[in-house]
Amino acid sequence: MLADVDPAGLRLTNLEQLESESIHIIREVVAQFSSPVMLYSIGKDSSVLLHLTRKAFFPAKIPFPLLHIDTTWKFSEMIEFRDRIASELGLELITHTNPEGLDMGLNPFDQHSTYYTDVMKTQALKQALDAGEFDAAFGGARRDEEKSRAKERVFSFRDRHHRWDPRNQRPELWNLFNGRVNKGESIRVFPMSNWTELDVWQYIHIEGIDVVGLYFAAQRPVVKRDGALIMVDDDRFRFEAGETPEMRSVRFRTLGCYPLSGAVQSTAATVLEVIAEQLNATRSEREGRVIDHDSSGSMEDKKREGYF
Amino acid sequence: MTADQSIDRSGISTCIDSLVETFEHRELLRFLTCGSVDDGKSTLIGRLLHDTKRVYEDQLAELSAHHSGVQGSDLQVDLAWLMDGLKSEREQGITIDVAYRYFSTARRKFVVADTPGHEQYTRNMATGASNSDLAVILIDAQQGMGVQTKRHMYITSLLGITRVVVAVNKMDLIDWSESRFKQICADCREFSKRHACVETYFLPMSALHGDNVVHRSSNLGWFDGPTLMEHLETVDIADDVDLRHFRLVVQNVIRDGQGFRGFAGTVASGIVRPGDTVVAVPSGIGSNVERIVTFNGDLDIAGPGRAVTLTLTDEIDIGRGDWLVSDPTVPLRAHKLDADLVWMNENPLKGGYRCILQSEGGSTNTTVTAIRHRVDINTGDEQPAASVGLNDVARCVIALDKELMFDPYRVNRRTGSFILVDRLNNATVGAGMIVAASSPWDRTPEPTLIGTTSGIEGWERSIRYGQKPCTVLITGLTAAGKSTIATALERELFDRGKVSVRLDGENVRLGISRDLGFSNPERSENLRRIAEVARLVNNQGLIAIAALVAPDAEVRARARALLTPDRFVEVFVDTPIEVCRVRDDKGMYAAAERGEITSFPGVSAVYDRPTEMDLRLDTSVRSPQQCAAAIVDLLAARGFLRG
Ligand SMILES: Nc1nc2c(ncn2[C@@H]2O[C@H](COP(=O)(O)OP(=O)(O)O)[C@@H](O)[C@H]2O)c(=O)[nH]1
Fold first, then answer.
1. DSSP character at residue B596
2. Is the CB of residue B84 below 6 angstroms from any atom belonging to ligand 1?
3. Touching check for A165 and chain B: CB below 8 Å?
4. How close A228 comes to chain B (CA, Å)?
């Protein structure tokens, strides 16, 4: 029966294995939970997660909605991208902005980034999850992104206040994921836990996945602030004394609110060039994210509060 | 390639292409590092990451800022610090969980499960090991093999890891001594003998100085094996993959609302191709694979580990938890299992605990009915236990409310494992590896039971009866003539003044086996009871004649072992099935063919033809008396009959 099969040809490559494992996790969530949702951040990891989800249920449609927390300060290119993808793929997309934060006119220029992030992202997310009564929320986070994530579970348990308790996480063995929750509790699911940034880019390359153009180098107006390159994305930008935008060839490794996202100087204008840059990478990805530098371990504090 | 920002595009693009191509064909290898505190695990992982250039500049920058008050080793930064993750743990100076690290070379990508050494060890190590292809067990060369090493070897083998690297670390502190290294290897080999089929690579190393980690060592010139990295990059991790038996447990049924109906799941073993015949279990209904559907187009073939969606040529009723298999004997089925449990909860496990068992096929209410024994993880010894504490390993009996389909864990890690979930707080409290369906053959009696010995010696009985005791097992199909031969044999022995006890399978079913049906486990149990009675009979100096179908070769072998092979005579009544059918005055064959009797050996169930019998008889050419005489001749020749 096996005479005509070359076993070597059946071996999965790293990417094929990661893909299959992620698909398995996504399917498991749909089987175990009554009301899942996918947190869609518009970034490259979200793009890959969306792609994996389409694959998991092909030829059927994705059997759950996408949720985007809109702080109103995302790069305009991100919002255009989001709306285009949603309409092209016929996705059910929920967007939510914290109405109180909006009323108070919170913005990342006037408020401290910790406070701003808590109201516009963490609280907004909780509001939206409560409103939708979702019992599972997919995210595109990876363990290699940051030190504290190395121990994060694939199924990360959250109590009824969406809090994460590092001491109350379930051991995960084999490919068995315990998704049992009591009413009000939920699970954050990270199907791409074992992917690295390089895996993500390679996968984008071979699968031809559409990502926001901001990931590729172009001449963009930036100001240098506290060592970070901040892009002047619209006329709401608050210049400090002596600041004038200058055009530089930059790209972004992670995307969020534009005043809080640091660009890196680069000429990598295509996926392949980004990968080439990756293979020589000497700076870790979150470095460009201003929020991380508040204090060491700040990411962990945010996670406990319910931020992704 | 250089990190030069001003890349010359045209010249370099083909270079990028081939580089990217190489990286896309990399395989994934998951490994586990284990060692006691201070053996150098963190240093080793830091060294692997560092030497493979994955320690990013800014992480290093942050690191040196943190450690400004610390005396530096020759690596400048304390690599171990890099391995600690969570803030609160950092403050307490301990690590409490499994951390996953990633690094890669051009050949492979690696996922390292780092499990720190302290009390929570068993739980964490089992978690890390459950998905690992390989384990690196560290030994401090100054300490040699200790109790901890034995524990690591035991858990590694319990979790089914068959590839182990024993890395003897800190060789620099013992002057790179070859003889000391060899001594440690010899100690390990002696101990690891008991763990069958583990392939072990012994390696002398200094994690701190980098000798034999990624780079070869001039200090260890006497050692010419591959470095740890070379070994990790080249070790074959697919040689034990089962390609023969296709198994897929259905996760979801996919419907697109326009008539498409596919079965989604991950191939657990074997291969599948369009046109293959598959059987859905438990229903037993067969069909053919129509398509292997994926987003990127249909596949011609899919192998282990691949997530696929299959469509079948027939409309059959299949749901989550059903299996699609190439060979319907593949999943075993039972309501009661023997399993090795790793207990992961503060509250100890006691017999009678009700919980939920979650396996590849879904969830079922379950009771842990009994604890057979606890394992001392430092020695591998089995001890009786009334309860199982956190981080204990125990062999338990699990009773499921619904029949479970499974494979033994040794056969398939994916379909042979489960977790236990508490019904109140939903915590994952235990991890289980299925050994087999629970069978009374394996049940060990209460340790408080001690048999009484007779005052009569065996030789006294032997003189009185003029015989030595033995058991004659007469096996064969229904209506082959077993009972007739058994009766004739009994007569023949009686006439010669010998004393025997006849145990006819059917007679036994009228009494002590009245509670048994005819399924395979029940037939096995019937033979076990007869064998146990025969053992008592033999102990009294008498000859036992057991006549029953005994269709399963493995069960017959157990009877042989129980009664000791030199006192056991297996007689195969090899009457052609057509002759049996004619002789069958109760019409059993006809009923079986009509489907009225299920699991009827020779028709709807397997009869394993004996291959190691002591005597084969064909009753279509010999009379019962001739057959009995042949058995008597054999018994005489084997010295069971005197005078
Ligand atoms: N001399 C020497 N010291 C080592 C070596 N490997 C680790 N160490 C030291 O042993 C101590 C414990 O190492 P660490 O990696 O923290 O051990 P862990 O508890 O297993 O993670 C540290 O002080 C290391 O610097 C080695 O190969 N040679």
1. S
2. no
3. no
4. 14
- Are B359 and A144 a contacting pair at CB < 8 A? no
Task: With H, G, I as helix, E, B as strand and everything else as coil, classify residue B256.
Answer: coil
Inspect the interface and report whether the beta carbons of A19 and B260 lie closer than 8 Å: no
Check pocket membership of B207 for ligand 1, CB cut-off 6 A: yes
* B136, B228 Cβ separation under 8 angstroms: yes
> Measuring CA to CA, which residue among B267, B619, A99 is closest to residue B631?
B619
CB of B35 sitting under 6 A from ligand 1 = yes
ipTM of the predicted assembly exceeds 0.95: no
CB-based contact, A34 to chain B, within 8 Å: no
For residue B206, which atom of ligand 1 is closest to its CA? Answer: 27
Q: Give me the mean pLDDT over the B75-100 stretch.
A: 52
Check if the beta carbon of residue B398 is closer than 8 Å to that of residue B431: no
Residue ranges of A 221-250 with Cβ closer than 8 A to chain B: none
Give the helix ranges, DSSP H, for A91-189: 99-103, 113-117, 124-132
- Candidates A2, A13, A14: best to mutate against B (most CBs of B within 10 A) is A14
Q: Which residues contact B581 (CB under 8 A, 6 or more apart)?
A: B479, B589
Q: Residue A202: which of A40, A17, A68 has the closest Cα?
A: A17
Question: For residue B427, what are the contacts with CB-CB under 8 A and spacing of at least 6?
Answer: A170, B345, B421
B494-510 confidence digits (pLDDT tens): 999 999 999 999 999 99
Q: Using an 8 Å Cβ cutoff, are B432 and B515 in contact?
A: no
What is the phi/psi pair of residue A116, to 5°?
-55, -50
Tell me the residue ranges of DSSP E strands in chain A: 36-39, 66-69, 93-96, 136-138, 155-158, 186-189, 218-225, 228-231, 246-251, 262-265
Q: Is the full-model pTM beyond 0.80?
A: no
DSSP codes of every residue in B160-213: T--EEEEEEE-GGGGTT-HHHHHHHHHHHHHHHTTSTT-EEEEEE-BTTTTBTT
Place of tokens 């282990």: B304
Parallel, antiparallel, or unpaired for β A246-251 and A218-225? antiparallel
For B182-226, what is each residue's pLDDT tens digit?
999 999 988 877 666 678 999 999 999 999 998 888 999 999 999
**CB atoms A10 and B244 under 8 Å:** no
State whether residue B88 sits within 8 Å of chain A by CB: yes
Shortest CA gap A38–chain B (Å)? 18
CA dihedral angle for residue B516, residue B520, residue B526, residue B531, rounded to 10 degrees: -170
What digits encode the pLDDT tens for the residues B543-553?
999 999 999 88
